Amino acid sequence: MTETFDAGDVTLERVREHVWEIPKTGDMRVPARVLASKQLLEEIKQDKTLEQITNTTHLPGIKKYAICMPDGHQGYGFPVGGVAAIDAEDGCISPGAVGYDINCGVRMLRTNLTYEEIRGHEQQLVDALFDAIPTGLGGGAVVDNAPVEEILDRGVEWALEAGYGIESDLANCEDEGRRPDADPAAVSQKAKDRGRNQAGSLGSGNHFLEVQRVTDIFREDVAAEFGLERDQIVVLIHCGSRGLGHQVCTDYLREIEQTHQGLLERLPDKELAAAPAGSQLAEQYYGAMCAAINFAWVNRQLIMHETRQVFAEVFDRDWRDMEMELLYDVAHNIAKREEHDIDGEQREVFVHRKGATRAFPAGRPELPETYRGVGQPILLPGSMGAGSYVLRGGENSLSETFGSTAHGAGRLMSRTQAKNEFWGEDVQDDLREQDQIYVKAQSGATVAEEAPGVYKDVDEVVNVSDALGIGDKVARTYPVCNIKG
Fold first, then answer.
1. Whole-model pTM?
2. How confident is the model at residue 139 (pLDDT cuts 50, 70, 90)?
3. Would I find Endoplasmic reticulum among this entry's keywords (predicted)?
4. Please, what are the domains in the chain?
5. 407 tagged catalytic
6. pLDDT tens-digit readout, 238-263
7. Mind giving me the DSSP string for 159-200?
């Protein structure tokens, strides 16, 4: 007899350990799958995540199943932690299934410093980073009046030529830091104007820069290939395309809603508004989204450049002597043309990953030569008090999840609820006094919104990914200091 899980209006059937399915009924084109332990399912069922992943199965051209990752939670139309592969010829592309913060993503910077070497410098370091890197809502940038057109077109190649990076920064960035399908002309002037003075800024919300120490190594051979060892200091940078990406999403959602009302009327939620593949709007949105992806990569590159300068100043030595090299940069909130095996046939699909990370296994040609033999690095941040993980693309990821895994711990609590439950200054004091974690932010409210208790158990999320073989545990890191918007 099939084991089931009752989630109120929805009953999930157990396919195997950590794999639960909402069977195809009514107008669903495919089943929906949720990858989670029972503990995580209890949390996932608390909001509209299951309703949203079910709604996603109605999108034209969706293949195999809609997937919700173990960190899944309610989003705009499409759940955060959602993955959908949609046929690139007879399907569609959905801005809501990508999200407003296009190419929100994470990069990790390695160093040769040990935790002991930075003990006693934490306050100086967090203050210097906060002073150097613009945070919070609105403007502020590493590069004022940035050449937005060139950034949108060329991505990190522009940053390298402008003196904000080194060759290996390109090699160790997803897609080498540039989407060639980018079309700056498809990005509105309003979006460009919003981005012009935000190039090199963290923004607000859950975005952060965190200095971390490596506390655990789970796969010694892979960690060695990634250049990681115990007690090493690394830096994790999490942000996206700022106001530019938000405007791109807003612009195209409105246009698609007006132009493709017939398709919209067939969907259970207008927030899933989609443009048919091959249509003018689908092509324009894809070009604009790829341009915003390039902007986000440059944004993280510029923040990394500033981080290198701050470390050089605080520790009074050249950042190259500290071997401050990019380990990898991974994108989430993205739709990409990829080829995948669909029922024994190679098909080109738009893989929508919203709050999900690409997790390609060893051997994929898209991976940098450095990592092709071991699999793609995956950077999975936890909360300020729980630490983060480095994984590598697992052998089962292509067959199970179109080469994807979770992107973080996943929220348990809304921002409003968090501010009612936590007091930012108390959270900061507790982290510093109990855990020796130094946090600096624009406001106490920001800290309260991102308090450790606001998030799911990152260990549980990662254990599900590891058990399913979609993203394998390599190393764990723990916060030393953190700056936020």
1. 0.96
2. low
3. no
4. 4-412+455-484 (3.90.1860.10)
5. yes
6. 999 999 999 999 999 999 999 999 99
7. HHHTTS--HHHHHTBGGGG--TT--GGGS-HHHHHHHHT-TT
